[in-house]
Amino acid sequence: MFTKMPYGGDYNPEQWDRATMEEDIRMFKKANIDFVRVHIFSWALSQPDEATYQFEWLDKVIDRLHENNIQVGIGTGTAAHPAWLAKKYPDVLRVEFNGMKRKFGGRHNSCPNSPSYRTFAKRLVERLVERYKDHPAVVLWNVSNEFGGACYCENCEKAFRVWLKKRYRTLDEVNRVWNTRFWGHTFYDWDEIVAPNLLSEHFAENRTMFQGISLDYARFNSDSMLECYKMEYDVIKKESPDTIVTTNLMGAFKPLDYFKWAKYMDIIAWDNYPAFDTPYSYTALMHDLMRGIKDQQPFMLMEQTPSQQNWQPYNSLKRPGVLKLWSYQAIAHGSDSVLYFQMRRSRGACEKFHGAVIEHVGHEHTRVFKEVAEIGQELVDLSNTFIGSKLPSKVAIIFDWENWWAIEYSSGPHADLKYVEQVHKYYEALYKQNIQVDIVSTESDLDQYEVVIAPVLYMVKEGYADKLERFVKAGGYFVTTFFSGIVNENDLVTLGGYPGELRSLLGIWSEEIDSLALEHKNQIVLKSKLGQLQGKYDCNMLFDLIHSEGAEVIAEYGEDFYKGRPALTVNKYGKGEAWYVATNPEQEFIDHLLMEICERQNIKRVLNTPSGVEVTKRMNDENEFVFVMNHNKESKTIQLQGAYEDLLTGQLYQDQLTIEANGVMVLRV
Amino acid sequence: MFTKMPYGGDYNPEQWDRATMEEDIRMFKKANIDFVRVHIFSWALSQPDEATYQFEWLDKVIDRLHENNIQVGIGTGTAAHPAWLAKKYPDVLRVEFNGMKRKFGGRHNSCPNSPSYRTFAKRLVERLVERYKDHPAVVLWNVSNEFGGACYCENCEKAFRVWLKKRYRTLDEVNRVWNTRFWGHTFYDWDEIVAPNLLSEHFAENRTMFQGISLDYARFNSDSMLECYKMEYDVIKKESPDTIVTTNLMGAFKPLDYFKWAKYMDIIAWDNYPAFDTPYSYTALMHDLMRGIKDQQPFMLMEQTPSQQNWQPYNSLKRPGVLKLWSYQAIAHGSDSVLYFQMRRSRGACEKFHGAVIEHVGHEHTRVFKEVAEIGQELVDLSNTFIGSKLPSKVAIIFDWENWWAIEYSSGPHADLKYVEQVHKYYEALYKQNIQVDIVSTESDLDQYEVVIAPVLYMVKEGYADKLERFVKAGGYFVTTFFSGIVNENDLVTLGGYPGELRSLLGIWSEEIDSLALEHKNQIVLKSKLGQLQGKYDCNMLFDLIHSEGAEVIAEYGEDFYKGRPALTVNKYGKGEAWYVATNPEQEFIDHLLMEICERQNIKRVLNTPSGVEVTKRMNDENEFVFVMNHNKESKTIQLQGAYEDLLTGQLYQDQLTIEANGVMVLRV
Amino acid sequence: MFTKMPYGGDYNPEQWDRATMEEDIRMFKKANIDFVRVHIFSWALSQPDEATYQFEWLDKVIDRLHENNIQVGIGTGTAAHPAWLAKKYPDVLRVEFNGMKRKFGGRHNSCPNSPSYRTFAKRLVERLVERYKDHPAVVLWNVSNEFGGACYCENCEKAFRVWLKKRYRTLDEVNRVWNTRFWGHTFYDWDEIVAPNLLSEHFAENRTMFQGISLDYARFNSDSMLECYKMEYDVIKKESPDTIVTTNLMGAFKPLDYFKWAKYMDIIAWDNYPAFDTPYSYTALMHDLMRGIKDQQPFMLMEQTPSQQNWQPYNSLKRPGVLKLWSYQAIAHGSDSVLYFQMRRSRGACEKFHGAVIEHVGHEHTRVFKEVAEIGQELVDLSNTFIGSKLPSKVAIIFDWENWWAIEYSSGPHADLKYVEQVHKYYEALYKQNIQVDIVSTESDLDQYEVVIAPVLYMVKEGYADKLERFVKAGGYFVTTFFSGIVNENDLVTLGGYPGELRSLLGIWSEEIDSLALEHKNQIVLKSKLGQLQGKYDCNMLFDLIHSEGAEVIAEYGEDFYKGRPALTVNKYGKGEAWYVATNPEQEFIDHLLMEICERQNIKRVLNTPSGVEVTKRMNDENEFVFVMNHNKESKTIQLQGAYEDLLTGQLYQDQLTIEANGVMVLRV
């Protein structure tokens, strides 16, 4: 898609005078910045009233960038509607989860089902496309910005009913899938259905009295935003079919089912903002998730801060070298760009303390600018070598937004069960071993994998149990956990014994699920040593009380009235194996379990490294690139097999290498 | 009322197909289930629109149950109104404490003063009664379900003004009792009075700027719900005067003054849902409270879970034996039934993870079903022997909802003072000694008691001080605490020195009340050993600075500027004694104090047991039944005087017995 | 203004009968109470409907007080509107921060921009003034009561737009100062501007997406309340130009910019309610702030409790002697009155558990009354000697409400940065040394000071950097801290490098600001010993990474990647010095730093005392009065130079004195 990795980021020259823009461009060149994203929040400027569009300012910006060989990603600007629109067409304003109608303010503030919003957003994009579709600088279109939130207004309610009709056809079917006989909720007319929020079924954001309606509203809300995206996408593609259209996503962002979105995005783009205490493996998981939502295609790192954020409680500076380390971490997991929010710090409003390539001091003699410029130079030198390359993987982790919503809407069995935390635990075990992982959806083909892991696969969609059975029969290894196989896609329990449709695959029946406060621990006791798995491990939270129905019992509970009952089982099934982890173990257990399973499937690490040194591999037809990243505060030595060249320095390594604290190496085998 | 303890519980066949019902009935019989509660949330099903009622489905259910000798408690179904009603008659929807008008959703969602709700609820009940009053299976009517919540709509405001007129006659009297001269709140017109909530006098649920109006609104809200109950009660009784009418209560449920409700209930019924960390003594107190609200009559345990709940943060399984232990605990405290929520787990919506007799697996080969069936068999064998028997008691604890409301609405002196906690502390001291307690209202006759305890009797209603004085004069022992005797029933301070109307009975004047953060402790120092009372005990929270006006000072404070001033006093008064505990002591002090007072009144324990072994006694004309319950995780040995037969096993015990962990014995003397 | 310190406080005889008032007066005389504040919340009583005013009751009260030589401060009564007004003219009701329209209830409940409120409030005051302006008892007018809160109704929105027009003239200027190009917020019509609250720009009380509008709304809200105050002030002064008009303030009360208010107050009055855990130095700071807002004039302690409060979570009694100690602490910091809330405890409503001179017991034989009477006698004997005297000071601390608002609206860099906490830390260092401090505004003249301290001077208003430069050039010592010099008065960043306009004065450039969770500490390491400053000190929160541009580096960071970079600098500038503290140090560092700076400027302590013994000095033309206050729980001995007479006892001290626990001495040199 690109031949050189785009380098640059968000640029808002409309906040500054002309002379400042010239100064910006001078500095961009010093840093080898060759791509900027403009017009992200410029609707109000480009359309000062209903009848008037004024793009002359934007013409000048884009022309001047073009004259300086800087490519442009053009934002459609629809993420924040103008104040005049809100005043004249209040249907653009959202109704909040608590039922209050909003007034003008904030951002991403438009109701996705507002007729006025859709009309005016479309008109704006039409004019933008018409004007810039042939501009040689414009290489990418960014629809809106960080779609998110939700609305509960009457227009949304009406649209929800239409959505339901489309999905379920009859009200009888709605009543059935929501189980409305419970608590006498039967609907006899579509118009009786209202949005589920604090005024109706919810008593907290994540606590609902009717899971079915809340789950469908989550789907509907994601779809409504997606409709807005697609509307703009279609407008752009109609006029400019070959351009790249995308929008910037946000990793494991709960409200939007990005697997559905990815189908309509030419390339995935996402904004990476780890908090001051985010584990490195979590960031890696986010990159892999973003790669995964579009079939493992390379993606764009659309935003990251060059120095610090402003909206965290504590906004630590990136330590020297960390900007480079994290930029290469993105590349190492599949990014084909390094982009920042933002080029120049605003003088006012809520992001003025967000880091930028050009700080408030206004010149280039800053630590941050120097680090930015250094990366810019490397990308010029290098990035054409590995751009477009893929990450080979034999292991997949299933990630499913609908499952996530359903688990966390559930009333019981345990308030502290968080889906992404569970996914992260299994991911981390592989991350520590430098075993590459693809994050896949329930629609993904599993044939290419040796091991498939589905942490807390609570919701098993129609046909999915069959797919898993076929995978295992054919020799695949499948791992799943407690609270899996419980419901279908309408959050209706699969009757006949847990884990429902997975029961025969796993060879177990889970009779009961105990749920204890987290401080109350039990143990997983191995019946005999199995690779690294030996002795006992702590576990807590949920405890399945299972009966083996053919599965081999590998480990048992160590305490309580279910002492001696199975805690870890494996079921031979066809040529493969289906593993079941009946409780929430300490991390070390999962580390050892997955190590064992990978060894059984002969899955190798990219490299063997000390703790905190991350390694990934990207490949293209010619080469293999090994990215080595040292997240430690001290240098580390790694044993090598074979010879490697560090593309960043040209240095050759044989047998071993030493990587400095926060260091990065890009090795060519 | 019953000749055999009803055994069974909530049953919702309308959520399932016909074949499932047949399977249910088969299993009911296996478990000796002979009573189910139906139609609890079936309004929407039974009345699909304003003009149509359809009860054929219910006919079939009840007939089929009857054919299988299963009795039916029929719910009126008015706890959750249908969606069509909410849409067509929005006055049925509540306005929340924060002032927002609700939409359709949730349960117990109707405004109690909604004209439409009252009209349609009444019509439904009329039709139900007409249809089922003579059905031989129907032995009980359950009005609505777990009444609760509150509404702040305009209809409620209007009804509140009517309620006020009835109670106070004139606006002048309202102004007087609310002390509206304070902060210039004088009302000159009834219509100026609005509901006290977050938009008017409250800044939090329990924090009001005008205690008088909030207290009256609490009374009004309880009365409004009671009006709804009584409306249905009257409809049923008019047609079916001999049937049993009740509704299921919820223990120490703050919003409803159950002493008032009990007058209109043929039998008390309540739902027992201890949390994962509820002390056993607290559950015992709740049973005794439910027995107490209707003059110590036996009550119905209307709901408990056979295994786990779903709406707690952590929903632990009942350990093996615990279901039986807790079922007998209910009986031991006066229940004449053992009933469950629910017969079969729902497939969908918010209670699908709530335990049931028939689990999602759908068959009877589960631990839970087996435990249920075992109890069922025992009740068939035994329950006719002790049904209807009473619990003899010489000790009463006063419990008063209005006092509760007033204490916790109070602005000062201490944010952490919780009424039920204080009641529980005194209850627990007696519970540990196996001394039986009646919980009584301020209207109850005290003559039959030797000891009366009134923890934090903040509100002293008209005439109540006289009643207490008569009780003590006649030889009774009275115990009360700090923050007692402060106000009258309008929360107006009794002037002339605390503890107000109790001053002469107690023989003290409390000049000041110190209030310190809980971690700031003082001591109660005994002047000399008195039975178990000796040395010193910690105390905290509130500290009365009292002057004896005739009372004997038994203990003093150990620290601070009031070191040496009285902390525990006793006043000889007529033939009795009035004790005053001037501060909030550690539990052991209360244990020792009540042991001493009971010994002075020669009140005996039912049995002497090790810690964690609870004992109660029920009596009828023929027999005394001693219930022994071991809440410990290990077996315990108890010394006996005399011979006992365990009705559950037929075993005879002399001198001593050993009871297993979680064990239950029902001994006949 | 007064010749004898007014002694007494809030009095609400309208809550009681006539006989009670006579009893009150009898007791007032026993306690030498000679001033009471009446009619504070009596609007509803004095005006029962739109057409009727009834002041006869007030005539009687004031006449009877006058006959007993008790002076009267008359409240205008407009702090709580009557219920009838709210019903008939609902525009008087506020709209809350969450967007909900309030109903009748609470206090200070009127919208400040309500036309009806302003009309009726004015009419009431006109009638009051007309009636009482010549009454010999009336010596003071108290407008409303504890102004506070905010409103977000449409009338406020309209008034806000008018306020903006007046301040900024054009919408272009509004757009500029709010930087509305950010996030496309440009306004094209005044009516597009809405109040910033939870429905528009805020996501929490202190968290806004547009600092500019929120900051201006804070200014506007303070000004709106001030308009209400001024309206009443003008009405009173027009008829009674020589009377004293004031309103009771609340110390560091964030919503109101008291420096602006003080200009329209004849004397500052404030209500001192320390919480159970408020440090003594914080109370001292509040007194000094209240003295400071009106150019160090003596002020009135308008309210304090004689015993305990009721609205804290824990309302501890004032220990014996503490009432006197705290009363003299007020005097020691500039108060010319000692007044209480309240004379007699209410029987009902939310302040019935607030302490009073006359307790619920109703007689004078209480500890509290005796302490009150003792102070009353002392003030009769003594207060004419030191009334009106001033506190000499060579040190000033700058306090700025607008800076406070801006700092705490800021999104980043650190959620835990609290302005008043920072001011208090620097104040406390001086307080411990008995070095007197004036709290000054940014408008205050600095010439009289040797040292000026500006903790976190984030906002530097137009011309203020010049003023500071002039001050230092002329020999002044200036101390400021991290996160200073960042923005102008519109919260727009001063470009060109932090600390912006203070850069040349301080001789530094701060390149970056690190922000870490509070538990993450660094150290300030002294390059060499400097007075008490030596070794190293902990610091946390924010860390400027500075380059010296001429300043001398006194101390460096001890850790992290900026180890060795400046943490404390001093810049010689003209004849003075400008100090910069680049991080948030532990208290001891600030203690030592300010000790060093005061020594350099030869600023002396009033007295040298052990920890916990506070000393201040008031002076008039004849005498110096040294107030010695022992906050310790044990007696302390102090070395003296020279001879002192204790005015309270007549005792003479030479060389040394011993002061008892909670003791007070007023020494004349």
From TrEMBL, chains A, B, C:
Binding annotation for substrate: 107, 145, 311
Binding site residues for Zn(2+): 111, 151, 153, 156
Name this protein carries in UniProt: Beta-galactosidase
GO biological process, one term: galactose metabolic process
Domain Beta-galactosidase trimerisation residue range list: 394-603
Pfam families xref list: Glyco_hydro_42 (PF02449), Glyco_hydro_42C (PF08533), Glyco_hydro_42M (PF08532)
Upper classification of the organism: Bacteria, Bacillati, Bacillota, Bacilli, Bacillales
Active site feature: 146 (proton donor), 303 (nucleophile)
